[in-house]
Description:
The structure holds 2 protein chains of 2 kinds. Chain A is mostly beta strands. Chain A is built from no helices and 11 strands. The model of chain A has no long low-confidence stretch (mean pLDDT 97). Chain A binds chain B through residues 33, 35, 37, 44-47, 50, 59, 61, 95, 97, 100, 102-111, and chain B through 32-33, 35, 37, 39, 43-47, 50-51, 56, 86, 88, 90, 92, 96-104.
Amino acid sequence: EVQLVESGGGLVQPGGSLRLSCTASEFTFYRYWMSWVRQAPGKGLEWVANIKGDATVKYYSDSVKGRFTISRDNAKNSLFLQMDSLGAGDTGIYYCARDSGNYFNDFWGQGTLVSVSS
Amino acid sequence: EIVLTQSPGTLSLSPGERATLSCRTSQSVSNTYLAWHQQKPGQAPRLLIYGASNRATGIPDRFSGSGSGTDFTLTISRLEPEDFAVYYCQLFVSSPPTYTFGQGTKLEIK
């Protein structure tokens, strides 16, 4: 069964940085696009960024463009999200999700909580 | 930018009843690009339906998806206690290849 395990969340001050990780297993990681999706407390899902299997193509939502960087290490089956210039609006649970290759996310990790507060 | 609007915001029903959830897109989209996810409290989302009408692996047949163009529907034929959750529609946007979600419908026990 596909497994995605996020880590790296925590409490950070406004303007600070955080790096999230997602470790994947039980599938051929480099063949798949991967996404980060977040969820503010009590709110809905918001797509954040995605990255092609070979890491040559990346896209970001307008709300994080220029502040967040998605990357991956296929040798380690790992996905990352470097988050800089964090603000209160970035607080929430961050999920990594696999892109099925057929226009939907088919597997999700359990998420990691990011709290931005002074 | 395509906007997804889900209705109702909250749906109150009893076990055994039929649930009908709507997802409308602000412009016509391909069925291929529309999916539904279920999220229970404290859990990650789970894929239910892809390509507007295809059940994901392991999803019971009481869940069905339909629709085309701008109007899509998730139907739960006979509600089980474990079906009370929040449901999101998801759209793949091809240029650039990104995703957007509806705001969700909360299905609660009446």
